[in-house]
Amino acid sequence: MRTNLLTAALLLLAGCTSHDKQSDGPSRSDSDTESEGTVYLRSRVWNNPYGGYTEYTWFYLSDDGVIVRNARHGMNPINPEKEKEDNEKNIGTYKERQKKLFIKWEDGKRDTFDFNRDDPSELGIDGGLVTVPNAFDDDHRIKGQFAYTSFNPMLSKVNTIVFKKNGTFELTNSTSVNVKDVTGTYGENSTSGKYKITGNTLTLKFANGNVEKSNIAYWKNDDGSLLLVINNKTFPQEGE
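User: That's the sequence. What structure does it adopt?
Assistant: Structure tokens below.
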């Protein structure tokens, strides 16, 4: 299955290569990021009647005992106060011992996750396959068109984003319906603006003034094309 292959390749190669950027310098390592901690990306493959999918979950473990799952305000740097405002079920504190994380989330819930910091691939983080993704250089630029597609027999959705070397982007979201007596594009909208990539944080500044931060990782294919993981979606590069 293509999803499984993408997951396996990402986990094997996520930290191995750098790619087209403004300078010829290498992507920086996690130790060079502004925040004092480590970013982890976990993948789990689930099966369903339509062929299955890969679930991606981001974790940030600070050196002083703070944990953030699927940060909403960027990884570089982590902003604990903002995460507490609108992501309290995914931020908390942790203690680590005997290959386990003992977690108390901000909303009061507690979890115990298996985890081996020396070899994250051994136990994952509460299972799954785990990698430490490379961090991009400051103000990194990429060029190309990337698309995420989800579908079932009745509905398909495509999110297409075009990144340009001048720091601008174009984003198009479309939905198509395929049911009896109704076939065709249901809706499509396009937006644009400026982007910035630093570390594992993608910031989109839309023309209407809105700002969105996402978590981002990459894998470079043998042919030079890229696969981006943005939050919990994969965006393969299309065309040249």
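The chain has two domains: 2-134, 138-238.
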